[in-house]
Design goal:
The protein is mainly beta and 318 residues long. The chain contains three helices and 22 strands.
Length: 318
Amino acid sequence: MKTKFKFLLGAAVMAALALPASAQFLGKEDMPVTQPKMTGQFWAPKPTELTPYAAPNKPVWRLSEILAAHKGQADWVQPIVRNKDQVADYISVAPGFKSKPHFYPDDRVVFIVWGGSIKVSIDGYDPFVATKGFMVNVPFRHLFTLENVGSTPALRFEVRQNGSEPIYPASETPDPLKGFTYMKVTEQPGPSKEKDSNPIYVDYMKEFNGTDKSYGGKFVWDDHFTSNILRGKGAPVPPDTNKGHFHVGWTEFWFVMEGSIGIKIEGEPYLKTEAGDIITAAQGRWHRAGDDPSAAWSTRVPFNPRPPILHNFEVTGD
């Protein structure tokens, strides 16, 4: 009897093995996403009923619709993802905005700038101005501020760990937080040390856009956060019989950085997306993301709560 695993990792992931060294991607990966498959076959629990999409979660958030809903506004927050592990929002701030200094206690915060100019000042690092396509990683327990230094609203897609709330220095008045009372405290231990592991930022437009670089390597990688740059050439759309894979305990979502990512999620039709859109595959649903043939190159940036989460592929045979 012949048995095979039906799956689609995509040429972008497999090309990582040939990725040249880059100063942007430092440190070592204890569990690279390209590691060999486990040998043998297994029984993996999959929900009998499809995991529902509870608001604000949905298969695709289209940036064009988000911008239309907030037309004429400079300051707004659009909730995008809410699950047991992570939360994500599209956030717009008006020219002249500057956040209060703050940090997150035990987990990093990550964001992708998609409009305007944001000056990012992180304690222990040189300040920099992030424009469209900058992927920014703020290590935990590092005070930071964000300032719109441009003449137009600044837009970013921000991802945080669920339950992680900001902490402010005693010299600041904390922003109100529903269900919490801020207490004056002392704290230990100090900030994380990251200068030899995850990059503080990646300038995607400079490093990848318009090039022939496939894959792209990791962006951030720790025990509570995994995010890679998955870039590849447009390819034919597989048939619906190719279910892709599912995750037992986690919901996965992606930011579309470039081109058009095609997504097939169990219970949903095949969907084409555009740059700036957000895709979410609910926990336990079969899903298959790929580089739609309508674009020469496409890139998606996945966000996962573990490094990396287990992929379960259907076993078929004759």
